[in-house]
C-alpha cells in the first residue's frame, strides 16, 4: 500500500510554527485513534519535540516518549516501532521506512533551503506514486 502524503507548507516568520503544527497534527491523529511516529533529524530535535508535547497545551495529554513503544513515539534513527499508523516527518530527508505507514505528514518551513528540500521530497513521493495533498498554512 502506498501511503497518501500531506504536505504542510508554512508561510510565516515564526520559527516555532513548525513545531507547534507538528504538535497539532499529533494531537489530531491521536484523537482519531492512530499510533504516530515523529521522525526528527537528531536526538536534540527529538528531545525538543518531547518537551514541547508535554507543554504545548495545558488541557491535553499525549502519551509519548522517545524511541519507545508508546502510542506516540519520537525518533531520529532508522529504527521504528512496529504498528505505527502515521509518520510525521520533521527531517529534511525522506526516511527509508516510509512504507510502514498508512499516512505521512511532511512539514516544510518557509525558508529557501527547507523549501527546496521539500520540493525534492515532493518529487520523490510523486515519482513513487503517492497521493499528494498540499496545505498552505499562514500563521
SSE order in H/E notation?
EHEHEEEEHE
Low-pLDDT regions: none
CATH superfamily: DNA polymerase III subunit chi
Shape: globular
Number of strands: 7
Structure description:
- With 139 residues, the protein is α/β, with parallel strands linked by helices.
- It has helices at residues 17-31, 43-55, 112-127, and strands at 5-11, 36-39, 64-66, 72-75, 86-89, 103-108, 132-138.
- The mean pLDDT is 91.
In short:
The chain is an alpha/beta fold and 139 residues long.
Topology diagram in text:
Layout lengths: L4 E7 L5 H15 L4 E4 L3 H13 L8 E3 L5 E4 L10 E4 L13 E6 L3 H16 L4 E7 L1
Q: What key phrases describe this protein's structure?
A:
single chain; 139 residues; alpha/beta; Rossmann fold; seven-stranded parallel beta sheet; 3 helices; 32% helix
